């Protein structure tokens, strides 16, 4: 009996040690990863074969590219916020571009991430969390996970303006 209990205790201790070690590694890696995520400072247009998409972008100096994997939050004020506000208006307050109407008021596209923009981002995050991304944080911060999950403004040849869901970690 002691052998079985001893084995279970040893297994639990090994798993606990592994969890502490890997948890510690992730804790140390998180601040570095967060600090390397650029702020979205502009609107970027990605051109594909027969289509284009616009999204907020930040300069990723590690890869020397404009990246969709950037952040905006309450108090941000720039062209990236304007693009985010346009994307929300085009893809989450109307259905004619292939988006959904969440029942939120259209935003004033002024480039200022205030209370209304934050509330709209929360509404988008709640919607996207319940429609395919259960791990998406609902915090009102536009970060890489929100960027890759939500729809953005675009167009397709012969179709016209559409809402696009483009998932590329780094776009050139």
**Which CATH class of the largest domain?**
Mainly Alpha
Q: How many domains is the backbone divided into?
A: 2
Order of helices and strands: HEEEHHHEE
CATH architecture identity of the largest domain: Orthogonal Bundle
Class from helix and strand fractions: alpha+beta
Percent of sequence in beta strands:
15-25%
Spatial separation of the terminal alpha carbons: 62 Å
The largest sheet is: 5 strands, antiparallel
Rough outline: globular
Looking at the structure, the CATH topology of the largest domain is: Muramoyl-pentapeptide Carboxypeptidase, domain 1
Unreliable spans are 1-34, 168-172
What's the total number of strands?
A: 5
Determine the CATH superfamily of the largest domain: PGBD-like superfamily/PGBD
What does the average pLDDT come to? 81
Question: What is the structure about, briefly put?
Answer:
By secondary structure, the protein is an alpha+beta fold. 41% of the residues lie in helices and 17% in strands. It has four helices and five strands; from the N terminus they run H-E-E-E-H-H-H-E-E.
Describe this structure as you would to a colleague.
Helices cover 41% and strands 17% of the residues. With 172 residues, the chain is of the alpha+beta class. The chain folds into two domains: 1-36; 37-164, Muramoyl-pentapeptide Carboxypeptidase, domain 1 (Orthogonal Bundle). Strands 1, 2, 3, 4 and 5 form a five-stranded antiparallel beta sheet that branches. A hairpin with a 4-residue loop joins strand 2 (51-60) and strand 3. The longest helix is centred in the first third of the chain and has 35 residues, at 2-36. It is globular and about 35 Å long. The N and C termini lie far apart (62 Å).
